[in-house]
Design a protein that fits this description.
Elements: E1 3-8, H1 16-33, E2 35-40, H2 52-68, E3 77-80, H3 86-95, H4 100-104, H5 107-118, H6 125-140, E4 145-147, H7 153-170, E5 178-180, H8 215-223, H9 241-254, H10 258-263, H11 268-294, H12 297-326
Parallel strand pairs: 1-2, 2-3, 4-5
Bound molecules: tryptophan.
The site of tryptophan (TRP) has 13 residues, from β1 and α6.
């Protein structure tokens, strides 16, 4: 069975974009059809200025929401990255395989570091090395497939390159992974800025629907979504990105398709209304389950503890192999008590 690995970064409250674009597919498809491993990548949440208490809170919340969205610990592995040392252990080894030039070419690094410098801030070194840690996440588990949005495709490509290079230099150690774009999932755009993704990290509220938004809040955000000039509802991603985004969200929530949904809506207002209600309906069960899980924090903790244990057992042998292959002297095992005498 193919191993699938994906990660979610606890840098903001999870959004409708995370849900329709990833989590829902993980729950509906991946955990049933693959040996699926899902990681809350908290180490990745420290590459830019962060607040320790908030990181902790968001990590727990992301775990709770993944379960609320339907990930079943009986079917897949859910854990927190920092609970498993193998990620950091392998990341350093991969830093000895990756090059400085490769890191500086990463689009996300270029964008984020330029933005940070423009604000007069300093850029954490971990922002530069982030893709190596992400490669370690993937390679430690021997994942063949990595379902991610297209903004992460370049990082998965790097993981491939590093796997191939390591294997050539030091002997076959890693499965060479590939990115898979989610089949059914929508690419949900910001409601106020329909040409950019509905990301959780750019905490600019009105264009982002959070998974835990109350129905009234969802309604307000969707009804105030930016639409395009023109009046008829047509599905045209290029020319009418705002309307196209609403149609795609509605399609993703109801299982319809954007073209035919366009033809049954007479006005932007009607489309917004239907979209708002469809989103509220889609989020309802997730929110209800989230509430139940919050009332039972011991359960979530136990899932994460057990998840980390399973994850460690999966990653450890591969990372040990990489350590040996690259020339690190194996530690001598502690002699058994009796044998020592
Ligand atoms: N970089 C990914 C993001 O920002 C999160 C991530 C970290 C990830 N490690 C991963 C995704 C490994 C897939 C596999 O969304």
């Amino acid at each position: 069975m193919t191993r699938v690995f994906s990660g979610v970064k606890p840098t903001g409250h999870l959004t409708l974009g995370n849900y329709l674009g990833a989590m829902r597919q993980w729950a509906a498809v991946d955990q049933h059809e693959a040996d699926a491993v899902f990681c809350i990548v908290d180490l990745h949440g420290m590459t830019v200025d962060h607040d320790p208490a908030r990181l902790r809170r968001l990590t727990r919340q992301a775990a709770t929401l993944l379960l609320a969205a339907g990930l079943d610990p009986e079917l897949c592995t859910v854990f927190v990255q920092s609970h498993v040392d193998e990620h950091a252990r392998l990341s350093y080894v991969l830093e000895c395989v990756a090059t400085d030039g490769e890191m500086r070419r990463m689009i996300q690094y270029k964008d984020k570091s330029a933005r940070e410098r423009a604000r007069g801030g300093s850029v954490r070194l971990s922002l530069l090395t982030y893709p190596v840690l992400m490669a370690a996440d993937i390679l430690a588990y021997g994942a063949g497939e990595v379902p991610v949005g297209d903004d992460q495709a370049q990082h998965v490509e790097l993981a491939r390159d590093l796997a191939v290079r390591f294997n050539q230099r030091y002997g076959h150690t890693f499965v060479v992974p590939k990115a898979t774009l989610p089949r059914v999932a929508a690419r949900v755009m910001n409601l106020q800025e329909p040409t950019s993704k509905m990301g959780k990290s750019d905490d600019s509220g009105p264009g982002i629907v959070y998974l835990l938004d109350e129905p009234d809040v969802v309604r307000r955000k969707v009804l105030r979504a930016v639409t395009d000039s023109g009046r008829e509802v047509v599905y045209d991603r290029e020319g009418r990105p705002g309307v196209a985004n609403l149609l795609e969200i509605l399609a993703a929530c109801t299982g319809g398709n954007p073209e035919s949904l366009a033809s049954v809506h007479q006005s932007y207002g009607a489309l917004k209304k239907d979209t708002a209600e469809a989103v509220i309906e889609a989020l309802g069960p997730v929110q209800a389950r989230h509430k139940e899980l919050c009332a039972d924090p011991g359960y979530v903790e136990e899932v994460l503890r057990h998840g980390a244990e399973k994850a460690r057992a999966m990653a450890r042998p591969t990372v040990d192999t990489a350590y040996r292959a690259i020339g690190l002297l194996p530690p001598v095992a502690e002699p058994a008590l009796n044998a020592a005498r």
